[in-house]
Amino acid sequence: MTIRVLVNAALLAIPIAVTLGILFGLQSHRSATGQPPLFAPEPPPIPTPKPKVPHNGITKTRYCQKSIGITPETKGQQYTLNPNQWNWNTGDPGGLCLNVTTFNNGTYATDTTAPQFMISWQYPPGPEDNPVHAFPNIQVDTDVFPATINTISKVDVDLEWSYGIGNETTEGATLAELTADNLNTNVAIDMFIDSDKKAAQDPSKAKYELMVWFAAIGPATQPIGFAQGSVSTQTLDGNKFDLYAGVNQQKQNVLTWYTDTPVEKFNGDISPLINSLFKLTATAADLPKSGDYLGYLALGSEAFSVDKTVTLYVPKLAIDIETDTSST
Ligand SMILES: *[C@@H]1O[C@H](CO)[C@@H](O)[C@H](O)[C@H]1NC(C)=O
Ligand SMILES: *[C@@H]1O[C@H](CO)[C@@H](O)[C@H](O)[C@H]1NC(C)=O
Ligand SMILES: *[C@@H]1O[C@H](CO)[C@@H](O)[C@H](O)[C@H]1NC(C)=O
């Protein structure tokens, strides 16, 4: 037996979270429904003797479920991964698997480094008004959340990713190759904001959704409000992002910082993309206030459709969110 087997046994005991249209933070859903938290800070005592595992080994695990929260053990900041195939059911054409590489010693490159992962998927095109099948993602489980935005001193993101053609490939393809296979997807950070602490942690209830897209691949992949044109522009870590604003079907105000050139390596503080919203005047969406709460942040890929199996590979990810409590 290995640590991995024990971790899996614990995860299998968790009821599968079925999402409503968009991703439901597993943890926040449980707190919202008054259930005890899924992942206790300390694992419960194991009655059988601890199995011997190679202390410095790595473990790879593949998850092809519709939805399951995976929180690898770590000595640093926790992350929760989820295949989150919210608009796909077992038996439907296509599918998605998430492969996670964990360190048995729980010690990653830095305190905020996430386990490496890759997401392989293929879906046929869906209806034009409902084209997304899944939002596989990795959520930051920081105890900083919910944080009033005016106390957040930085949201550092150190990210490297590639999209390749093939199942579980680490080899990236060019945008031309990906669009030739009719890939429609994005690579994005998804955040939720609300004046209410609880709602800010719940993607289905928050008043504002703020996204930062590192890529938009394929003609179907457009941010809400794209047709109305960009309302603001900013350059971050040498990359130009344009802001689009609109309201989604759940009546949430959606603000998207968008790039038309894939940004496969990014290392910078994205808090200016949040703070600049407070300087904007009227847009097609309502705008959050600096005293509102940021309660949720995840990186993922909205999986629309593609002809062949493609793989999003994320060899490097570290997200460091800090608050300056003295400035309150
Ligand atoms: C933990 O395990 C990883 C993967 O085998 C290894 O690269 C790293 O050096 C180990 N860290 C420590 C502090 O033992
Ligand atoms: C994906 O995970 C499985 C174990 O579940 C492992 O055997 C396989 O090698 C992994 N694939 C890659 C490319 O790492
Ligand atoms: C990728 O390959 C693995 C191992 O053969 C398989 O279990 C999985 O279903 C494949 N994934 C996709 C999306 O085709």
From TrEMBL:
The chain crosses the membrane at residues 6-26. Keywords: Carbohydrate metabolism, Glycosidase, Hydrolase, Membrane, Polysaccharide degradation, Transmembrane, Transmembrane helix. GO terms for molecular function: cellulase activity. The keyword Zinc-finger does not apply. It comes from the Eukaryota. One of its GO terms (biological process) is polysaccharide catabolic process. Belongs to the glycosyl hydrolase 12 (cellulase H) family. PANTHER family: BLR1656 PROTEIN, XYLOGLUCAN-SPECIFIC ENDO-BETA-1,4-GLUCANASE A. This is GH12 endo-beta-1,4-glucanase. It comes from Trichoderma parareesei (Filamentous fungus).
